[in-house]
Each structure stands twice: as C-alpha cells, then as structure tokens.
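Section 3.1: Structural characterization of target chains.
Under the original work plan, the team committed to producing a structural model for every single-chain target entering the pipeline before any wet-lab resources were allocated. The record below documents one such target. The sequence was received from the expression subgroup and is listed exactly as submitted; it comprises 517 residues.
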Amino acid sequence: MRFFITCLILIGLTSGSAIGRENALIVYGKVPGANASDQYALAVRSAEKEERWRDAFAFITRCKNGIRGENGYFPHLSGWSHSYINIEMGGPVEIEIRKVNGQPIRKAIVRPQRKVRSCVVRDGKAYVTLDKPCQVSVDIDGQMEDHDTGKGYTGPPIHSLTVFANPLMRDRPSPTDPTVHAVKPGEKAPSDGPWKTLYFLPGVHDIGVAFPLHAARNYYIPGDAIVYGTMSNHEQWDDGHDIRVFGYGTLSMARIAHPNHASPRPVRANLHNSIRIVGARNSSVEGITIADPAYHSLMLIDSHRPDQPTTIRWAKIIGWRVNGDGINPFENGLIENCFIRTQDDSTYANGLGIRGVTYWNDFNGSTFVLTSLPNRKLIIENCDVIYARAGWDKWSGGRLFNMRGEGKGACGEGVVFRNISVEDPRPTLQHFLIAMQGLQPYFDPAQARGAGHLAGVVFKDIEIANASVLGQPDILWGTPNAKITKLTFDNVLIGGKKISSMEHFKHNEQVESIRFK
C-alpha cells in the first residue's frame, strides 16, 4: 500500500477531485532518476485563480556532437537542445520560464502566435498564458527569430523550449486495477501475461529495441516517466489491431543507434522505428512525446478502412537525425493535434485526414510529402508551420508542399489543404516544389515520377509570412506522362501578397488549367 500511495503522489493525482473539475490542472514534478533540463526551469499555475506556482519537470533532448553522419546526427545541429514540459489543463494556465544559469531573459516570442493569449517578459522571466490545450514553442532571446539557422549557419547551438499543454486525460489507468501490470523502474517489462494494460510507473525505464506489442493491449506512459527503446508488433499483421500506446510521458531513442550504425546491424532497419505496428486497425498513439527518434517515428500501417481507423492524437516528436521521419498515416491514419519537429520528412499527405498539427524543420525534410497523394477525399487543415529551415539548397527534400519527382499514378482529386499558416520569419527554401521531375539547380533532372497526372488539388486560405530567404521561386513542373492540371489556389498569400497568376511560379508547358481565386 505504501508504494501505491507514492505512485499517486508522483503522477499528480493527490487531489482526487482534480480530475473531475473542468478547470483542473495537473503538473508533473520531478521524474525519479532523470535529470531535468540544464537550460530552462518552468512553473505553472491556473490563470483564473492565480494559485501558487507549481514546478514542472522540464525534460531535455539533445543533438549529440559528432562527425558527419555519426549515428545519424546532423553536425549542423551539434550541441542543440530542446527542453519541454507536459501538463494537463482544463482551464487557462500561466507558465513562468527562467534560465537555469540565472541570466535574465531579454525577450520571448511564442509560436504559433494564434494559440497564445499573451507572452510577456518581467524581471528577467518570461510569462506565457494559454486559454486552451495546445503545443507552443517559446523562442528565448531571439535564437530562432533573429538568425538564419538554415544553410550556412555557423552560430552557437540553439536551445529551444516547448510547452505541451494537453487536455485532461479522463481514462488514465490505476496501477492497482487487476487488469493492469505496473512496471517499476529497473524491472524488466513483460511482453505478455494476464494483463490488459502495461503501466510504466514514474521514473526511468529501458525496454531496448523492438519491445513486443500485441493486439488488444494498452501501454501507458505517465507524464513523469521516460521509457528508452522502440516498440513493434514484429510484422504480425493479425496481431496489430486494437493496440493503444498512450499517456503524457516520453518514449526516447537516445540510447538506440541509427540502424546504419548499430552493431550488429539489425536484420530489419524498421526495428529501430520508435513505434511500428502493421495491421493497425483500431490502434492508436495518444499523448506521448517521442524524443530523438533513431529512425522513422510513427508507422501505423493498414489498408484503407475508415470504419476502423488508426489514430494519432496529441503526440509530439522531437528529432535530430537522418531518417527520423515524423508520421506516415498510410491509407488509414488520422492525425490530430500533434507537434512534429523532425530533421527528415514530417508527414506524408495520405490517410483519413491531418488537422491541427504544428510543424518545425531545421535541416532536412518536407512538411507535406505529396508523393503518396490519394485520388479521393482527403482534407488537411488547421496546421501551423513555425520554422521551415534547411541546411542546404540543392536537394529534393525540404519545402512545405513537395512532390520531388517520386512515386507514380494519378492523384489529387478530392484533396484539400486549407487554413495552413507558415509563421517562420526566415524560411530557407521555396514553399511549393510540386515537381514531377527534377530541374536544375534545385534537384537532379534524372529524378522523375512515374506515369499519372496530378489533378484537382485545392489550396485554400494558406498564409505564408515570408518567401525563401535564398530567393528560390515556387515551382510547378510537369512531364508529358505526369502533368499538373486543375489545381486551385484560393486565397494563398506569401508575404502578404496573394498568388493570382502563373507568373508567380517557375513552370513549364506540362502545367495547365490552374485556377486562382
């Protein structure tokens, strides 16, 4: 009984009535065995009652130093770090931020700006007020805002900070439930047994590579736990349904090698995916933070069956490495209210829908990869791109909308991108690279998409604050067997200017019937 009471205190449930109140606030304190951020310290309180400040445990993930390609880390980002907190809120909250080294904060900017009530600096500290659950970055002292951190950057390491303000979790499991198996830090987690839910108790856990997941099981990581390792159902298509991985804790790959640098080399590189589930109907990932993915982050793979979707909600990804892609929804995935900071591709435009996602790129990868666009209804909406940087300028990756001369087949009918905001004051590359074939000097002309026209995509209410700092033009570039036709640009603005004609784009004769509104 003594251990159970300790667990309740650690996971922030000491006030039994807190979960039932609409304005509840849950702040996770110290994580046993883990070191807090050495960059920022944060405290949280209700913005309505101005109650006492409660210290929040700030996790930190770092880009490791090394030569080019060592364990997949980009040397451009060597020494960079990202601190973050997870809280649960049922009403407005105020967050206090200070530097751990005691130096005063001079200025702070929150992005996405439309998700914050206020951000002010007083007496060397920053104060951010949020009215409802969201995920925001707080740039301290102009590190991202005042510098071109993309191609050619040689300045000091950037130390980022995000606040992950989550909705209250109403169905958290109890470690004393007879269907729950509670794993203490340092214990070996069982891969099977007479349990429905595997509960990683507060503290630090290590499950290694490809911890086995099974159908009709739940895996819970609370906000004051960090689990090192990856999870997989080992390509068992009949053992991937009705799996739930959830909680506001962290799944970290900081102890996992990139598969190209592992010794011995893995039989399958995808064993190093953070979470990989095949046959993932009715399976979900909710709330967790994936830190330092060693390979692709979230791969929930299934065919198109909207009555049994795979869902990813309120997940966060913070990556530093090559191949550390964010989320591929495949044909059956629904992505909602996630935060994705990756150094390779963020999301593939496919699945059942993408909405309410916040994006951030520093070195490599595209926000929306168009190569797997379907030919059916798909709406991608209400998304924010806060930073769109790249460490190079002659490559097929990067960009906001990118076809990059890959894939094949007719696509685009029924696809709508709407209410997309790009706030970055210093985006590195152009935002549209809808190119069915490479062209100089942007990427290799030998790279070309297979037969099948792109037609019918609608871009509506897209507001992009600034054009490429390198002056790169937006591009529409077709081929005879892969034309670009009947696209609609409806209220698409870059730098406050609406795109109103083909004169805006670098284009060729294989682009036709483009509409502007």
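The chain has a mean pLDDT of 94.
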